[in-house]
Every structure is written in C-alpha cells, then in structure tokens.
Design a protein that fits this description.
CATH class of chain A: Alpha Beta
Largest interface: A-B, 22 and 26 residues
Strand content of chain A: 25-35%
Strand order of the largest sheet of chain A: 3-1-2-4-5
Shape of chain A: elongated
Oligomer: homohexamer
CATH topology of chain A: Tetrahydropterin Synthase, Chain A
Number of domains of chain A: 1
Radius of gyration of chain A: 17 Å
Structural class of chain A: alpha+beta
Chain lengths: 137, 137, 137, 137, 137, 137
C-alpha cells in the first residue's frame, strides 16, 4: 500500500533577485521590483510530500514527528528570520528565486530522508505564486 | 477530453493511535500524544478527485450532486461525530492513522463509483498534515 | 497609543455534549449527534486578542514570545490531544460546549496576563462555527 | 532542472447550465438549480501550472510578470464581470460547466504560451468544487 | 455570561449594479464593470454573529442547529443560484450592492431571531471585499 | 444606515526589530531572532475597515475603486518590495514592529480619507500574528 504524506512548514526571510555582474538597469528589467538592492521579504510556506509504503503494523508511512523534526531542523531553523542572499553559501552565486530556493530545500531534505521515500517540495513565495520540484509533468 | 473533478468533504471524529497488544510505553514511544487512551479528535477534511471523460453533450464528467451524495452518504454520514476506534469494525484491528483512514475512505468510495472513473482521496487530519492515496509518485 | 494584538493558537481534542442527569433521548434532542456517548473531536483554533498601550521605546504592546508561551503552556499544552469531558476537573459538571470552553480559556489566560491588558478569546470548533468571549455587542 | 510554477488568478462571472434544445424539466433534472434561466454566478479561482526547464542564469522558469500578464489579458480581462452564456461565442453551443470552462481557459493559455512549457489549469467554481485539465490520472 | 456565536453561510448569485433611471454612461462611471447589463456573479460568504446570555444548564447561547436552519431557510435557500436584480421584490428599486444586500440579510434574520439576541452580519462579495452591518464603529 | 466596508491589501517587505542605541545582546534579548541585523521579511496582509453612512441612491458607503486606489497608491506602492528600516524616513527612529507599522498605515490612510468616515486597520505580519489600530476594546 503506497501512499503520500504531506507536511506543511514555513519560514520568514529577506531576499533580493539580483545578479551582481549585471548592471542595475538589466537587473530591474529582468527582475522588476524584486531587484531592489535593499532587499524585501516573504513568509515562505512549504508542502513537503513524502511517498512510500505504509508499515502494516503501525499504519504509518513515516513518523510525522520525525518528518516535522527534519523539516524544522534543516530547513525552518536554517532559513527563518534570515537574509537568503547575505547569510548563505548556497546563494552566493545562485539567485534565490522561488525556483532555486525550492530546489535547494529539496536537496537538503533529500539528504536527510531515507532513500526508500520519494520526495517533492512545493514552496509558496506569496499566496498567489508557488513552485514545485520535481515538476508535476 | 479527459478531466479531473475535485470535491471537498469533511467530518469530525475522535480517535487514538494505540495498538492494544503493545505496552503503554511502546504506544507512547511510537505514537506520542496521539496514544492518549482517552482519545482526542480532529476536523477531518477530504478532497475526492475523480478522473474520466467529459460527456460532450452535458459538459459534465460526473453529476456533482451524485458525487456529493456518495461522499455524504458513505463517508461523511458514516464517520461524522463518531469514535473511529470504538464504533467501526474496520478499525478493530487497524490503527486509524491518517494513512489507514484515507485508504479506507478510498476503498468505500471505489465501491460506489462507476469503474470508468479513476479515484484519488486526500485527507487532512490537521491544517498541517495530510495524506493522499494512491501515492502521487 | 492603544492597540490590539491577535495571536492564533490551536489544539486537537475529543469531547461530547452530554448531561449525565438527563436521559439519552433528551441529550440527543438537545445536542444532536454531538451527544454521541463514544465522543467525537475537533481541531480547535483560537484567536487571542490582547489590548493596551504600546511601549514607546520598543514599539511593542506585549512581547509576542511571552504571549505565545502563555497560550502554549496554559492552553495548548493543557488541552491538546486530550478528552475534555474525561480528563479535566473544570468539565466534570460543565458541558464542554464551544461557549463554555471559550470562557474557560479566557479565565485561564486572564489569570496569567498582566491586569493592564484587556483580553478577548475567539474559539473555532469547526471552520463554520466559532464563539467570542466577551460578547462583541 | 525541470520545475513547475503555479500562479493564481480569478474572475467573477454569471452563468447558467442550460441546454436550449431541452425542455425546462430536463434541464432542471440534469443541472438542478444551476439551470435557473435568470442566471447565477461565481467567484472563479484558477491555478495555472507551467512546467519546464529553469534558466540556469536567472534561476527562473518563466518570468512571473509575463505569466501574470498572459493570464490577466487573455483570461481575467476576458471573463471578469461577464455573463458566460450571453457574451461569448465559445459558449453559444457549449454549456459553461466548470469542466468546459476549464478546458476553454487551458486552450486560450496554450495558444499564448511558448511550446516549450507544459500547461495545466485548475478551476474552482466554489470553495468545495474544482476541476483540473488535463486529468491528474 | 454574555457571549457571541458566529456561524458561516454562503450562496452563489448573479447581480449587476445598475440604476435604470440613469444613462448607461453614468452607470459605468459610478459602478464600473459591475454595471455590465448582462450581469456577473459571486460566491457570497456570510458570518452571522449572535450575542446574548449563555444558558447555564446547556452551556449554549443558541442551538446551533436552529441558527443554521434559520440562515439556511431564510437566506441561503432564498438567494442561492438566483439573480438578485431580476427575481426579488426587495431589489426592484434598491441596487444590490454588498451594503444593501448585507442590510437586507440582517433585516431578514432579525425578523426570525428572538429579540433577546443581538445580531450582526458580515458579507463577503469577494475574498478581498466585505461589509458589516451594523457598523463596527 | 451606518455600515462598515472592509478591503484587503498586501505588500512584501524586509525589516528588522533593532534599536541602534542598544547593544546587540539587548536587541536579541528583547526582539529575539527578529533582531537579525541582516534583516528578514514578511508578506504583510491588511484589512482596512471604513465606517459611515450609505448613500441611499447608489447603495454604496464609499466607491470601492476609490478605496482600493487609496490603499494601492499610498500604502501598497509605498511599502511593497521595500526595506522598512533602510528606505523610510518614518522608521528612522521608530522600530518597525507590527504595532508601529499598523499605526503608521492608519495615519497615512487617515490623511487621504474623507473625515466623514471612521477608519480601522488590521495588519498581519504572519498568518498567526496580527494587530489592529485602534484597539478593539
């Protein structure tokens, strides 16, 4: 019996979409107001989807407490109340778009999750915009 | 023209995650506060997804009234304001985790839905935790 | 500068609306399916509103961490994953309706909150039903 | 690196589910109160999912401003504050069910979106009912 | 012990904001796209707030089933899947703005609710716009 | 006929809670992780409540388009995708807590709203924390 479990998480962070090797004009043309050099920020929401076989005795796919702890320790505690551009090695040369942030979170969680599980991450930057990795089609 | 229709439903129920053949200590270690023998409860929310071919004349995949009635009669009326562990044969030897409850609901709906439709059930136990059967990947 | 701050909280609990000195028929007639003797349950959500003067130096009405800790320690930890009827002295002779539960939570918080603050509690039993104490008019 | 981006949109419109060549009785029997000849209406919400390869330099799948403009210009501006049955050629002989409307929106967006992207549209007619094209299974 | 209880309700209806004695230009200038003579529509959501004294024996302010039935019978059944301008005497000479509709619903409910209760109605026309009668200040 | 109208708005901004004349230790002790000198950020949501007399001819309290434009021009366009601490005169010597930001928004809107209307502003910093000015009690 193969099932998926979905756990929400969130963190609040500052970022800007800005490529230092580009002119300010090009940054503005491509990234719009997200390129403001003084930063802006978001309440990021996540849905982490883990798929696999249910344990027939406990009726659980994964202990939710363990999943919550992995998300809390490696993602929420890492990024909450932080500046993505300034404080993280992984965004030194990578623009912290929702796409790149979502993929980065997926990689972090993938490392701490047993290989027997499939993993997908959906990340909301605002109520109207979100991304999913891997792609749904 | 193949499409999916998604209908929400909900019910409020009591349950506990508890395996009688285990010691109270082991139940607590595995299920945490969900193992409280006095029960706790949830407002369960569902999304029932039905997929198939749209009727070219009516423009409908399935009459929504029929789908609502099937969900209402066989799932909501069955479980609403009930104790999952105490009042149902199906949970006599099956721990009513979100995973097992979701699969049980899927089996009930599968029985009452025409074979020409594909079926998927997502079940929220809280706003932060949900499961989907069949697995999304 | 007088302002109000609103903090959300939640807990999941089992209860029943049942007056032991009444017949089962009368309980059913008054409380409907909420009278099921085997219990049912809810995901309770709260909004705790605290009103008072903002500190001109810090720009804060109350330290949100303190407010969150009071709600967590005295309400969420108390009622989460519990059976309201069976496990609490305060509901031995008091039906745990949303009204009585909301007022009980208000009394608990009132005791642990500085007298200089006004206090109001809104409690959702389901997404469609909630109560507020004190009354809004 | 293949990812999906999801953008919300909405519009408010009137419609009725009514096949003119049928009797009023047959319309009522099939479409229920949705067949009221005087029309009713909805706040339609959409989630438009676009999938493809992320640009390694900008970290973007598609410029969100472009996606928002396509949805705004070709779907929201077209249908917002309109009567689907009376004012649109595409619904002269097609019942504006959620299914047909969702598919119609998908076709409009498909035309204005680069072929390199995959596309999916979810449409909510009410908070409880939604459809997705293409089907999820 | 005075408390307030809040019950949600909803209905889906068509309307237009249009004063027949005005020119089409003036209607457009004042009501914008809401003046489209072919109608548009909304999913209307309500919160009905009833205030009064809790019954010390039952712990209830009002039987929620009774409140739900009053809202269902006199408001939801009346307006759901209807055209506000065309099908109701009360909007023959009254523009069905959110303000007028909210006040009309308040008057209907006031008539069917015991005088011992205070009453307030909040009505959402869209997720972003709502009105409350009586005014909150 | 006195009524209230409530319009939602939102903006995304970076901020930190930090008093420059205090030591970093004191800032951390009082403001916790909100004191991170590199900033963090939020999706701020607002509900702007305007109260007054409905125009008997149009059935409107205030033209919603005008209210939306005032909120858009003077609040959303001002603060969206900005750094509250670095880019605004009003927060040079005022900590941009939710309380101070809410009051500042209220003052801005008060200036651009006709004196015949009463005004209240609710501001969400996260889904769990919000403030209202003026105080509700």
């Amino acid at each position: 019996m193969r099932i998926s479990i979905i756990r929400k998480g969130h963190f609040n962070a500052a970022h800007k979409l800005y490529i230092p090797s580009w002119s300010e004009e090009k940054n503005l043309a491509v990234f719009g107001k997200c390129a403001n050099p003084h930063y802006h920020g978001h309440n990021y929401n996540m849905e982490v989807t883990v798929s696999g076989e249910v344990d027939p005795e406990t009726g659980m796919l994964i202990n939710l407490k363990d999943l919550r702890d992995i998300i809390g320790k490696y993602v929420e505690d890492r990024y909450d109340h932080r500046n993505l551009n300034e404080e993280f090695e992984e965004f030194k040369d990578l623009v912290p778009t929702a796409e790149n942030l979502c993929y980065t979170i997926w990689k972090i969680l993938r490392e701490h999750l047993d290989d027997k599980y499939d993993l997908s991450v959906r990340l909301w930057e605002t109520e109207r915009n979100s991304v999913v990795y891997p792609a749904v089609s």
